[in-house]
Design a protein that fits this description.
This protein is an alpha/beta fold. Helix content is 26%, strand content 29%. Strand 1, helix 1 and strand 2 form a beta-alpha-beta unit. The protein is globular and about 45 Å long. One of its GO terms (molecular function) is lyase activity.
């Protein structure tokens, strides 16, 4: 069962609809008890980093989520701000992140290479994927297009954990993977067949 973590941040229904179309069992989880049957986890997120972290901290879900991910090695994918929450922290706020993939979230607009471009980075962009990534193992051509909407990006400490990058004034880490823990900055639920295929691969491969 794929459990989508419902802590008041993110479009849960969009993921439920996408998985239903694919015939993949998925349900929201808003209590620790509802997480206990999870074989896969999705951590969505939109908006401000600190707001999302505080909502997760206040939800009563974090302890069970950490147990499942860190002790039981249940595969998880963080999406958009959910990806950023996997980091050690963000330049957007002061709260610590989950610290599951070492790195820091940085501002696009404060980088001189990007400062003259429209902000946020919004719209379709090409992912340059690593063929070794399980998230892109099947069903992808050479130039998959994904939908982005963000002003901050994950800067992974270990670039070996970068599964895909994108370019917006600078190359940035768009997808990260460390073992069973994954994060994607773009929105697969808004990325047509490419996003559906990525989530299908996650459901099958972890």
């Amino acid at each position: 069962m794929i459990r989508i973590i419902d802590y008041g941040v993110g479009n849960i229904q969009a993921f439920l609809t996408l998985f239903k179309r694919q015939g993949i069992a998925a349900a929201r989880a808003s209590t620790p008890e509802e997480l206990q049957d999870a074989t896969r986890l999705i951590l969505p997120g939109v908006g401000h980093f600190d707001h999302a972290m505080q909502r997760l901290n206040d939800s009563g879900l974090r302890s069970e989520l950490e147990r499942l991910v860190k002790q039981e090695s249940v595969p998880i994918i963080g999406i958009c701000v959910g990806m950023q929450m996997l980091s050690d922290g963000s330049d957007e706020g002061g709260l610590p992140g989950l610290g599951w993939i070492p790195g820091r979230v940085r501002s696009l607009s404060e980088n001189s290479l990007v400062s003259n471009l429209p902000m946020p980075h919004m719209g379709w962009n090409t992912l340059r994927t690593k063929p070794s990534s399980r998230l892109f193992k099947s069903g992808f051509d050479d130039d998959p297009q994904f939908y982005f909407l963000h002003s901050f990006y994950f800067d992974a400490d270990d670039k070996n954990s970068v599964a895909a990058s994108a370019f917006y004034g600078l190359d940035f880490d768009a997808v990260v993977s460390s073992g069973h823990i994954h994060g994607i900055q773009c929105h697969p639920e808004k990325s047509h067949h490419w996003g559906a295929q990525l989530l299908k691969n996650f459901a099958e491969f972890g």
